[in-house]
Amino acid sequence: MKYQINDSYIDDIPSAVLYRQTMDHYPKSAIGCFIISDNWDEQALLELKEQSQVWFLVGLQTDNIDFGRLNTIEGVIRCQLDEVDQVVKLLDISPRGLISIDINDIKSLFEREKSYKFIQTHVTDVFETEMVKKAANELVSQLPKNLNIKGLLLGIESSEYPSLDNTSYIIDFIEKSIVADDLYSYYCTSISDEPNSFRLRAMYASA
Questions:
Q1: Is residue 1 part of a domain?
Q2: For residues 105 and 98, what is the distance between their CA atoms, to the nearest angstrom?
Q3: What pLDDT shows up at residue 98?
Q4: How far is C-alpha 134 from the geometric centre of its chain's CA atoms?
Q5: Which of 17, 37, 63, 148 is deepest in the core (most CB within 10 A)?
Q6: Which pTM value belongs to this model?
Q7: Contact by Cβ (8 Å): 180, 207
Q8: For residues 139 and 142, what is the distance between their CA atoms, to the nearest angstrom?
């Protein structure tokens, strides 16, 4: 059964929060993120889930150490340690503006594939059209060649609401640049506090 979310719940709490074992208390959120290398065990994760009332947990893997699958968590996102905050921002989906998704959409990605890789690109100080094209090319260049993509979440963030034309360009460019037998994808947009800034964040799963 899929989770049912009402608007009041979304307004009251963030979509995603990064939890550390050193916290005095665990605030509420819909998606609980934790860094796997912080030595969380299953009991600690169960306590986190109970205290924070998260709907599901996502582990962020910042090293190459094998992590045993736990029923406690929904999935894993592989990223660098300095990318952790950006992963949480990608999952913190409300409000998004031009294109929006909900927690059910993110959960459906993890129901399809359990392991994802995070990539991002950030472009500043050029005209918007140039930023869009440069960011799209830089993001695609980070994808392994001929990789069969099964699941994709792409976040588009800019200093101003991205135009429909620029958003369509990015989506079309990325979908034409990847190999996918049956691509399962979601896209969302957001506004940055940084002037003259354009950022793409993505997580993808391969076959």
A1: no
A2: 16
A3: 64
A4: 21
A5: 17
A6: 0.87
A7: no
A8: 5
